[in-house]
Design goal:
Length: 434
Amino acid sequence: MATNVVIGAQWGDEGKGKVVDLYTEFADMVVRFQGGNNAGHTLVVERDGELEKTVLHLIPSGILHEDTRCVIASGVVLDPGVLIEEIEGLRAQGYSVEPDQLVVAENASVIMPYHQTLDVARESDDSQQKIGTTGRGIGPCYEDRVGRRAIFARDLTDEARLRRKIGSNLAEKNQILSSMGADTYETDELVERCLEWGEQLEPFVVDAGRLVDEAVQRDERVLFEGAQGTMLDIGHGTYPYVTSSHTTSGGVCVGAGIAPRDIGGVVGISKAYCTRVGRGPFPTELDNEAGEHLREVGNEFGSTTGRPRRCGWVDVAGLRYAHRVNGFSGLAVTKLDVLSGLDTVKICVGYTDEDGKRYDQPPSDPDLLEALDPVYEELPGWEDDITGVRVLEDLPDAARQFLNRLETLLEVPIVLVSVGPARNETIVVENVYH
């Protein structure tokens, strides 16, 4: 298939960055289609005989492949300062990040300082519902997009337009911020800052939607990279404990500007267990020794915030729902190695309520989901270190039994298994670009 989409099948942090980096070897273009710098994609690759870790927040995870073009599409909300830091950081590592490799959609919405201040103020306000956001201004920026108040990447070099838009926005935002006891802003200060960003980013800013469409129509191998996960989708996740964008495969069409007919395959990414950051229901969450094993061995701390992630067993009922709304053509299972050393492993196959009613998928009401109890199948664990395994047949019997059961329950073929953080610590079952 010429086009493939990589989608988080859980609550984010599934290892999408590694999978995108791996698939970029076969791709001509990688497109990040939604989210902002509230997502962190971690890449571990070997350079000069040593493993090097790179954490990206906005730039697509294909950037380490110099022959692949990377696109930040219009569905992304853009913090220009963060993007400039990422570009400079990659260049300091020896990567050549130039406009012929990286482009930014001219109609990507810009995260302004007042968005960040408002985000933090809301989370600190005891009168408002706590969502557990990263405080990066993502939600308020998307609000302004929907409210037709957005400042776009193309505006960053137009002083007159900036002054008009920022002045209009601050008339409202400063009132809100002042009422919450938060800092307010001056138009001149923000215009000056935007113009500085614009001067540095202008060479990268293009009509990205047309660029992506032309690549698709030429039948180039295009890889669409999602951020966060299905259960955080603004329309289909555990609302209100969700992100502010469409994280599902349908979000590709809106965020990148392509037609549904142009989506080839959809690869769902799932850990061999499950994690969640922030508030909200989490049926398989573990507050015991097994949960601590997953957190410590899996290094489950947020790459963006450093927050410890909530950990639990893999939830096939949730994955079943993710398959329903995304249409997975294949499943990539990451962090299988983290389960090594456990006597038994469990798979959640559904839920029950207090009356014994069975659910094979999460209900749409998160309050109801919070009240359900998981139904588990228990399988034998394994002790072996599997990080050196490169073919399924060399995995311990118990590990293969675990994968086979996931595949059978979900009715989606497993196309990739990650057995360690490094690029080469991977079992490629099926190359999705063949």
